[in-house]
């Protein structure tokens, strides 16, 4: 069985920075990603990022991915793509027998159909960076072809250059809904409307202003009632909702659309963490069920760390920082510390605090603080 | 869509007048100056570094709204393509006799051509007047955010924020 110091699951911003920090500290590291290309969500982010200069603000996500690949390659990180991790066993006996150490065993499989083969990797430490997944929304007709997650539409236009439809309805006016609406316009689609069930636009006003001056109506206090069509969606019925979320009768209107995108939030993709035995807790501020972790990003399972959207749905900038933190801490737990790591951790924590401030992000700091509080009590002590 | 917009999806005139990045009428009358239509406390600061005149300040915390020192701003427009929110516009009320120019980021293909007559739109995307494309700038430093400058009747200079894309 292949043996590594550090196995990272997910080659998005968090996974890659975690692997870079681990490798720099002398950990034999492998990154496993189920997708054909590394980079996670970064590779379809064609808009310029917000944030500060140290977080590459003003740079497009795809360019941040390119520089991450470069950094990972020069650090000597090994990335295995089309490799889906389907189980993690922490059978200490087995591990001890294999490596004669207190290790964890990670099973993975190359996901291509023609040449897929099972592969086992024994890893002394595991960092899960499996990202987030889009929330679903149920309404009459919601399974019709042409109705998809906004992220799926973004993958289609920005990775595969396929426009999912011509006349599009976006459900949800958070940043994801607003940004992907803009990108669908750039790709040649017509945004018929963006609807939002709450009474205010959840995303940044500048994103809303951008699509507004492109002629897209943003209707707050509106929800989708139903979708219908022969073999795919042909029309949607939307309606106003009142303060108690009830549909205002008589406010229904029919829209001719061939695509409906759902952008009603994301949740941590915690299935693998759950399978590995990590305890979860429910945190609305972080997107739902999230693995409990401490300030070193370690979960309730000793030796398993998490980072990025899996540890709470946030931004790429926070994922980059958390990945670094997890990588440094996992390496340190193997005795692979570097001079200055203590200061480096403090600096990362400072930058995370900055990213989690302001009226849009302070709630994340509060939620994260609560989660880490639980983690400090429940996770293994260093 | 005939339905009126329920809640504003762009800043109101009142909000802009109160915004620290929006120039005064007096300054606008003097000649080219930028209007930073960024009124929410979001964590973002590339505009601060983009200005060679140090006319834009965000400082700490990073969620501060950008503050424009309108006397320092020379209207070079270098910040227009650098704002990730595409929220900075360059306005020149002295463009010519009777006409003003407005420059805005325009990330749509095909790009309009210089001299072309287009329909200018306001913040709600409604066509409000005819405009002539004065220039289209897309140097490498823009990071693939082309900046289009149009000449419009002077009275529309604080309303025009884009143009109709072809086919609309």
Which percent band covers the strand fraction of chain A? 25-35%
Mean pLDDT of chain A: 90
Largest interface: A-B, 46 and 44 residues
Which structural class is indicated by helix and strand composition of chain A?
Answer: alpha/beta
Question: What proportion of the residues of chain A is helical, as a percent range?
Answer: 25-40%
**CATH class descriptor of chain B:** Alpha Beta
In the CATH classification, which architecture of chain B applies? 2-Layer Sandwich
The helicity of chain B comes to: 10-25%
User: On the 0-100 scale, what is the average pLDDT of chain B?
Assistant: 93
Helix count of chain B equals 3
Described by strand count, sense and barrel closure, the largest sheet of chain A is: 7 strands, mixed
Question: Descriptors for this entry?
Answer:
heterodimer, A: about 375 residues, alpha/beta, FAD/NAD(P)-binding domain, 2 domains, five-stranded parallel β-sheet, 19 strands, elongated, B: about 170 residues, mainly beta, Alpha-Beta Plaits, seven-stranded antiparallel β-sheet, two-stranded antiparallel sheet, disordered N terminus
């Amino acid at each position: 069985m292949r043996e590594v110091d550090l196995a990272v699951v997910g080659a998005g911003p968090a996974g890659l920075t975690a692997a870079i920090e681990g490798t720099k500290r002398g950990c034999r590291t492998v990154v496993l990603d189920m997708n054909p290309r590394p980079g996670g969500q970064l590779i379809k982010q064609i808009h310029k990022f917000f944030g500060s200069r140290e977080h590459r603000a003003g740079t497009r996500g795809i360019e941040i991915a390119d520089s991450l690949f470069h950094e990972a390659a020069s650090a000597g990180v090994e990335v295995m793509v089309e490799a889906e991790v389907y189980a993690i066993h922490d059978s200490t006996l087995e591990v001890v027998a294999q490596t004669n150490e207190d290790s964890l065993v990670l099973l993975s499989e190359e996901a291509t159909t023609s040449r897929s083969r099972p592969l086992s990797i024994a890893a002394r430490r595991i960092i899960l960076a499996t990202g987030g997944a889009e929330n679903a929304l149920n309404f009459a007709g919601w399974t019709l072809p042409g109705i998809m997650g906004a992220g799926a539409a973004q993958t289609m236009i920005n990775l595969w250059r396929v426009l999912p439809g011509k006349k599009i309805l976006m459900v949800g006016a958070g940043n994801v809904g607003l940004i992907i609406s803009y990108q669908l316009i750039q790709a040649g689609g017509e945004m018929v409307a963006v609807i939002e069930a709450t009474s205010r636009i959840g995303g940044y006003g500048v994103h809303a202003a951008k699509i507004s001056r492109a002629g897209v109506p943003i209707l707050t206090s509106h929800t989708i009632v139903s979708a219908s069509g022969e073999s795919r969606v042909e029309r949607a019925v939307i309606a106003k909702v009142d303060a108690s979320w009830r549909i205002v009768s008589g406010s229904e209107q029919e829209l001719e659309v061939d695509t409906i995108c759902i952008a009603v939030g994301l949740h941590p993709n915690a299935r693998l963490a759950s399978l590995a035995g990590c305890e979860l807790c429910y945190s609305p501020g972080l997107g739902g069920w999230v693995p409990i972790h401490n300030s070193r990003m370690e979960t309730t399972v000793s030796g398993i760390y998490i980072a990025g959207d899996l540890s709470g749905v946030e931004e790429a900038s926070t994922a980059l920082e958390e990945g670094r933190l997890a990588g440094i801490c996992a390496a340190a737990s193997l005795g692979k510390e570097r001079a200055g790591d203590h200061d480096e951790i403090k600096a990362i924590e400072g930058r995370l605090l900055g990213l989690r401030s302001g009226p849009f992000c302070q709630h994340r700091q509060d939620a994260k603080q609560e989660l880490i509080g639980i983690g400090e009590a429940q996770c293994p002590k260093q | 869509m005939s339905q009126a917009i329920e809640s504003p999806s762009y800043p109101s005139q009142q909000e802009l007048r109160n915004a620290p990045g929006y120039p005064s009428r007096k300054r606008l009358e003097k000649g080219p100056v930028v209007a930073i239509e960024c009124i929410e406390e979001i964590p973002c600061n590339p505009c601060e570094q983009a200005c060679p005149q140090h006319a834009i300040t965000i400082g700490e915390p990073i969620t501060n709204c950008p503050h424009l020192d309108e006397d320092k701003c020379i209207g070079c427009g270098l910040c227009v393509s650098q704002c990730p929110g595409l929220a900075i516009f360059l306005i020149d009320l002295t463009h010519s006799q009777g006409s003003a120019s407005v420059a805005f980021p325009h990330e749509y293909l095909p790009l309009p051509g210089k001299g072309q007559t287009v329909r200018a739109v306001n913040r709600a995307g409604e066509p409000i007047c005819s405009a002539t494309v004065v220039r289209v700038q897309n140097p490498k430093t823009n990071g693939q955010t082309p900046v289009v400058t149009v000449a419009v009747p002077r009275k529309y200079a604080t309303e025009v924020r884009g143009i109709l894309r072809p086919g609309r």
